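Tutorial handout. Part one gives the primary structure; part two gives the three-dimensional structure as C-alpha cells.
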Amino acid sequence: MPDAKRRAFLPALFLFFCLLVFALSSLLCACRTDAAFDSGTQAVDCIRASSSKDPPSARVAAGENSATLLCVGDLLLHKTVRESGKGKDGYCYNALFAQLREQIRAADLSLINQETLSAGEAFGLPGYPCFNAPLSLADAVADAGFDAVLLANNHALDRGEDGLRACLQYYRKNWPDIRLAGVAESEAEAETIPIIEKNGIRFAILNYTYGTNGIPLPADAPYMVKILSPELVRKEVAIARAAADFVIVCPHWGTEYSKTPDPDQERYAQLFLACGVDLVVGTHPHVIQPIRWMQREDGHKMLVYYSLGNYVSGAAVRAEGSSRRLQGGMARITVARDEDGRTEIRAADVLPLITHIVSGYGGVSVYPFYAYTDTLADGNSFAHRYDPLFSKEYCDAHFREVFGPFLAKEDTLSSGPP
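Part two.
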C-alpha cells in the first residue's frame, strides 16, 4: 500500500495519465491477431429455454452430473452509479444486485466482469475515463453470491499497480472463496489456471483483455494483467483442457457501442474453437451483441456470447439510442458430464437486464426485463433524460433483434418466440 505522500499524489497523477492516453488508445485496434486461425466452423441450431425466471431446463440422464452457470457483463461505476451507493455511514452497493440476488446465488457457478477496480478511497474515486470504487463494492459482489470475478479489462490499471494490488488483496483477505481471473500478484499465480469444481465438473476460467487503455503493464510485473494474444490463448487453453472438464474463455474485446462483432472478435472466436474452448463470454462493447454456436469439423461445439453489454451503467450520453448502454444480458447455461467423462452444454439462453436509475441513495438497480413494469420504465428519469427513444417497447425490440432465438421466451413484452 502507498504511504501518505503517495496516497495524496497517485490519484492526480493517474487521472492526468489516463486522460492523456485514453484518447490515443481508443484509436488503436482492439485486438492484435496473427494469421493462424483455422476455419472449419458451421452454424448449428440454438438451444432454447422454456422459462424466463428459472435457468434453462436440460435433459440430464441418470448417472450424469450437471451444473448451472450464470454470467453477467460490465460492472462499471460511472459517477451516477458510484454516488447512488453513498449513505450516511459510507458506501453500500447492495442495491445493484437486490433484484437478481436470488438467481445469482441459486446458480452453481456465477461470474461477473468487474470493470471498475474496488481499490478504496485512498486511491481517489474518479469517474470516466479512469475509474475506481470504494472497497465496499467488493463486499456487494460477494454478498450477491458471485463465485468468480473477472478483472482483466481495459480499466485494470486505472489506479496503477498499487491500485490493482489493493483491489486483489482486499478480496483475498475478506472474500477468499471468490476466484479472481485475468490478473495476478505474482508470476507463479499468473501461471496458474483458475479452476472451480461444481457438482463433480471442473470448470477452467480464462480471462483476457485487448489492452489497458495505453497504460503500460508494470515493468517489474508484466504478468499482472493478462493481455489477449494468440500465443497466450493457445498455451493456456491447452493447459486448461488437460486439467478441466469444461473451458470458459472470457475475453474483453470488440468495438465499443457496436451491436455486431468486429473482425478481431470473429478471428479470436475461430482460434478459441480450434483450441477446444467450450464457452466464450465476451465483454467490453458496453452494448449487447449476438449469441452463436460454432462447430469444428470433428463435431466439437462452442457457444459464443459475443457481448453481454453492461451489467450496470450510468454513462451520461445525450443521444438517440444511448439507453442501449442500460441494457444487458445474463447468460444462463446448463452443463452436463456423462459417465464416460464427456462434458457438453445441454441448455443455454440469455435473460435480458435493464439498469434502472432514479435519484437518491440506492437509486440505481438492475432488473430482469420480465419484472420491469411500465411504471418503472416511465420512472427511469436518467434514461428519459438522455435518450428520447427510451421506452419499454424500444428495449424489447432491441433485445429481440440482438439476442434472437436465445432470448428466454417470456422475457419480452409478448410471449412466444421472437
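Part three, for discussion. Residues 4-25 form the longest helix (22 residues). The chain has one domain: 4-22+34-406.
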